[in-house]
Amino acid sequence: AASSPILSTTGLSASYGHARALHEVDIRVGEGELVAVLGPNGAGKSTLLRALLGLVANSGEVRFRGASLPRQNAVAVASRGIVLVPEGRGIFGPMSVADNLELGAYRLHDKAEFARRRERVLTLFPRLKERLGQVAGSMSGGEQQMLAIGRALMAGPQILLLDEPSLGLAPRVTGEILETLGLLNREGLAIVLVEQKAPLALKLANRVYLLSLGRIAAELDPRDITSHDDLAQHYFA
Ligand code: ATP
């Protein structure tokens, strides 16, 4: 059932200098929903996430739980619990796994809550538990992605935005990571999953937006997409 949105945009546009990369995008993410944003290279998927976070020059409106978010203000956005797992993961390679996790919770001053979140992350990703003292940059790509998600969870997100978490990963580890995202979503966490690889995202998503040339080309119910061919047809419709 579609609930009231936790996050929604109206006419969200974004530009790099004079080049507009996002045009009048309207999307909504319901409380507890997992929304996939699919699109080819350069469609503007990363730009959409950056615009939601106020990390790129943008216009239009972003609402979080009914209130308009101040634009161009990434700190204000982050303090509401809108947390990004960026493309390329953005972890600190020379630092240990434990220190990377701690950085995710830098706003948090409650020790018990810190311990609770850390335990939760290490339960979700047992491989991180085995590697707490390891230098993050020496881990496999999949482990680094787990760490990036773990660090985001340490921030206590109200909504988690992920930019191509499967990028460069083998199908098996991608499946593991997406399963964990599915679990978090079933527990009630709202998620926006940006992906190029559609089949995996479609399995999890409640709703799908297709992004093409910086515009929303379609909004789909994943149950209506029976094959990859269907999706390609939608793209080029
Ligand atoms: P990819 O999967 O390749 O990252 P994407 O769908 O995330 O693709 P974006 O990275 O959002 O696409 O790029 C959308 C458009 O904006 C592209 O035309 C890109 O060249 C342009 N663009 C992205 N970042 C910048 C930047 N920092 N400066 C100038 N143009 C940019």
TrEMBL record:
Cited Pfam families: ABC_tran
All residue ranges annotated as the ABC transporter domain in the record: 7-236
Protein name stated in the entry: Amino acid/amide ABC transporter ATP-binding protein 2, HAAT family
SUPFAM superfamilies: P-loop containing nucleoside triphosphate hydrolases (SSF52540)
Claim: Transport is one of the keywords in the record: yes
Family the entry assigns: Belongs to the ABC transporter superfamily.
UniProt record, GO biological process: L-amino acid transport
CDD domains, alphabetized: ABC_TM1139_LivF_branched (cd03224)
Claim: tRNA-binding is one of the keywords in the record: no
A GO MF term: branched-chain amino acid transmembrane transporter activity
Alphabetized InterPro entries for the sequence: AAA+_ATPase (IPR003593), ABC_transporter-like_ATP-bd (IPR003439), ABC_transporter-like_CS (IPR017871), BCAA_Transport_ATP-bd_LivF (IPR052156), P-loop_NTPase (IPR027417)
Keywords: Amino-acid transport, ATP-binding, Nucleotide-binding, Transport
